[in-house]
Amino acid sequence: MNNLSKNIKHLRGLKGLTQESLAEELLVTRSRISSYEENRSSPTIDFLIDFSTYFKIPIDIIIKNDLTKAKDVSFIEVGNKRVLFPITVDSDNENLIEVVSAKTSAGYLLGYDDPEYIEQLEKIKLPFLPTGKHRAFPIKGDSMLPMKDGSYVVAEFVEDIKEAKSGLSYIVVTKDDGMTYKRLENFVEEKQSFLLKPDNTTYQSYEVPVSEILELWKFTCSINTQEYEEHELKLSSIIQMFNGLGVELEALKKSLV
């Protein structure tokens, strides 16, 4: 039995589907599912596209990689890289995202790759999100103004952290410091590290080696749990204005050199 036939059978089992129920989902006959799982015939390209779409897993991974060790289809090991997929759906078959609440955030460092821990997280639906695996994280402190303490950042999982883009903000999960939200500068090629920069310049930037990073999630949107007060909006506007002026002055200095 090749990887593809084993994977079809295994992924069906992870979702608790019988051959008949999977056949109904994909609008094919049960005998076709049986034939593919027993390696008596090769799946058509149309079937592979439908199967890939249903399980939210790229066709090349389904074909080339042995997925039978996976205990949960929300993430799968591909080589030495952990790849997450937006498999969790509601009764209407729409994607849900996990919410790492303030209560559960303390255990995230230990449970980030534990399917049982991820499964017990609360889930919400945000239909406007782009494709990709998203998760919501709580924000602590004021290092990323105007993001308020207690807000949530909804972020997209980054499969290859070396491709992180400088100037964008990320949820960074590290071995020693746990979970933080910062703007990032990519120095992987030069130093094998990232510079994490708070938007609130009263806090210091600091470097983190690539080897220390467990997960990277790119900002997609934020959810405020408290209304801003007028003085807070003025303060954040002033800080943003000065930050912007700093960037413009640096650019001006370079142009005059």
Quickly list its features:
single chain; alpha+beta; nine-stranded mixed sheet; 10 helices; 35% helix; 24% strand
Structure description:
With 257 residues, the chain is of the alpha+beta class. It is built from 10 helices and 11 strands. Strands 4-3-5-6-11-7-8-9-10 form a 9-stranded mixed β-sheet. Strands 1-2 form a two-stranded antiparallel sheet. It is elongated.
Low-confidence stretches: 86-91
The helix fraction, in percent, is 25-40%
Distance between the termini: 66 Å
SSE order in H/E notation?
Answer: HHHHHEEEHHHEEEEEHEEEH
Query: pLDDT average, as an integer?
Result: 80
What is the count of β-strands? 11
Overall 3D form: elongated
Instruction: Specify the number of helices.
Output: 10
Q: How do the strands line up in the largest sheet?
A: 4-3-5-6-11-7-8-9-10
Give a brief description.
The chain is α+β, with helices and mostly antiparallel strands and 257 residues long. It has helices at 3-14, 19-26, 30-37, 45-55, 59-64, 102-105, 108-111, 115-119, 188-191, 230-256, and strands at residues 75-78, 81-84, 97-99, 122-124, 134-138, 152-157, 169-174, 178-187, 193-197, 206-209, 213-223.
Topology:
Layout (H helix, E strand, L loop, with lengths): L2 H12 L4 H8 L3 H8 L7 H11 L3 H6 L10 E4 L2 E4 L12 E3 L2 H4 L2 H4 L3 H5 L2 E3 L9 E5 L13 E6 L11 E6 L3 E10 H4 L1 E5 L8 E4 L3 E11 L6 H27 L1
Parallel strand pairs: 3-5
Antiparallel strand pairs: 1-2, 3-4, 5-6, 6-11, 7-8, 7-11, 8-9, 9-10
